[in-house]
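Hey team,

Filing this mostly as a record. A colleague (T.K.) asked me to run one chain through the structure pipeline before their review meeting, and I want the input and output archived in the tracker in case anyone asks later how it was produced. No errors, nothing strange. Just documentation.

Input sequence:
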Amino acid sequence: MSKRVVLAMSGGVDSSAAAVLLHRQGYEVIGLFMRSGETEKTACAVSGDGLLPVLDTPTHKQGCCSAEDAADARRVADQLGIPFHSLNFRDSFKRIKDYFADEYLAGRTPNPCVQCNNWLKFGKLWTFAEQVGADHIATGHYARILKDEATGQHSLHCGSDPKKDQSYVLFGIRRELLSKILLPVGGYQKPEIRAFAEEAGLRVAQKKDSYEICFVPNDDYAGFLKNYRGYADTEGDFVDTEGNVLGQHAGYEKFTVGQRKGLGITFGEPRFVISVNAERRQVVLGQREDLATSAIRAVDLNWLVDRPASSFECSVKVRYQQQSKDCTVELLNDNEALITPAEPIIGVAPGQAAVFYDGDWVLGGGWIQ
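Output structure:
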């Protein structure tokens, strides 16, 4: 059986440590850096086989897909003596940017990291792997894929480090790919990975983690949307839950459900964004208790297990940074579920993912409406 694996290398410590781990385990590792392709000029095709265009010269700084990151990834590949390719995924990144802009301008809260995994890291990455004859793809995500030796089935589980667990953002990958995916760092704690990278002599051992969305410089969502779409006339009213006008805002796209800071308007007590109405250009403000949700509708369901019965109990996570909560999930049809939490959940935002868990086992999930 082939041991060739294509590894998504971001230039960070996690994917770099993953490269070392796979290399030491005897895999034939091919490193792949995914560029957004905004300003680069494409060069020749990989090995002359008409694959995806190569970008051999990093040209600019941009988030976690920057020229610096590409150089860091290449240094690790050179240190290990493994092939390295930097490819132009401009069209895929444009799809993600369009999704991001469309959701915000519809008054929703997008999750581009989930869609990047669905469309790019576990979509285009696998396409490239097939083209170069690899049997596996790998990333530096903190999650685990386990195999049931009795059934031969593979399943997605939380990473061993609860502070770094990234299983939430992987719920949307195709189930049939689970057997093809390797997640080398998922069984480690983050400090262990940094220590391992240090021991391996990697320059990126203490490199800071990136928390920004790669195509949004300085976390300026509104600035990105303005430059990307050139929209206008998004200013409107702050209103309370009864519809009374409280003041004016400069653009509804600047706000998301649960937001408290940066409202640009002051009250005698904390106020939170309860909802965003793009059609009326209204941002609804209220008390923290107004954020409590006792019923959640999710659509576009994706299952990493056999489709459960029409109703089942599980824990559900509605944001990456939040704890999962006990819930009852009722499947309304093949594509829609009604989630009823045992206790109301604070800050449920349309556009985010609702991910279903059985302990540390990821069952699947959908998109909050």
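Quick notes for T.K.: Confidence is low (pLDDT under 50) at residues 39-63. The domain at 294-368 is CATH 2.40.30.10 (Elongation Factor Tu (Ef-tu); domain 3).
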